[in-house]
Write a structure and sequence with these properties.
With 204 residues, the chain is mainly alpha-helical. 67% of the residues lie in helices and 2% in strands. It has helices at residues 4-7, 23-40, 46-65, 73-80, 87-111, 117-127, 135-146, 151-159, 170-198, and strands spanning 16-17, 20-21. The protein has a two-stranded antiparallel sheet with strand order 1-2.
Length: 204
């Protein structure tokens, strides 16, 4: 085993070409975000995790059904456009929202070393997911935000080697995390623009 960020695919390693964002590499990196919520260690985040997992599964199912038409996320969406149910297109849209929420929360935590995670996640929720949620879901997320662990506990888990090896030094952890988040933010922005320009989110 190794510290968490060394065990998952970084968004910085997801290939992006003229044809778009590599589907399989992106899904592998997104799976790493699901695992990140295990480190946050609160049962209140189960709803967030299951949402991310469910949407990864929808995109993956489309890839498995039509791999040659789904090599990039952009191609997958374009090629699903003519179909009655655009399950993967909707799944990817929600997956991007969940990733944006996580990314902005952690970027805020990185930018404000004295801010607790509960504040960073709450602010991020206000600016990303909240507008898409009904009263019940807002309540679930409100509980989750309050259940965030202390900042120091989360960062020590992120740095730790579960097998008992040395922890990652703080400067290296910050460098890796910032790189991971910057690449994730760039992919989310790129795909949000793609959805907006192509009208791919209409009808959901």
């Amino acid at each position: 085993m190794a510290p968490y960020l060394e065990t998952v695919k970084s968004f910085a390693d997801v290939p992006i070409t003229d044809a778009g964002v590599d589907t399989l590499a992106f899904l592998e990196a997104a799976q790493g975000v699901v695992g990140l919520f295990d480190l946050l260690g609160s049962a209140a985040f189960t709803a967030v995790q299951s949402d991310l997992k469910g949407n990864i599964t929808k995109v993956r199912a489309r890839y498995d059904a039509a791999p040659e038409k789904s090599t990039t996320l952009e191609l997958l969406v374009v090629n699903e456009k003519g179909e009655k149910k655009r399950t993967a297109t909707e799944g990817l849209m929600w997956l991007l929202r969940g990733l944006s929420f996580t990314c902005k929360a952690l970027q805020a935590a990185q930018a404000n070393p004295t801010e607790e995670l509960a504040a960073a996640f709450s602010k991020s929720y206000e600016s990303t997911l909240k507008k898409f949620h009904n009263f019940v879901v807002k309540g679930i997320f409100s509980v989750a935000m309050k259940a965030c662990p202390y900042r120091a506990d989360f960062y020590s888990k992120l740095a730790a080697d579960p097998a008992g090896g040395p922890s990652v030094p703080a400067d290296k952890l910050n460098e890796e995390l910032n790189k991971w988040l910057a690449a994730l933010a760039a992919i989310v922005t790129r795909l949000e623009d793609f959805y907006e320009k192509g009208g791919h989110g209409k009808g959901f």
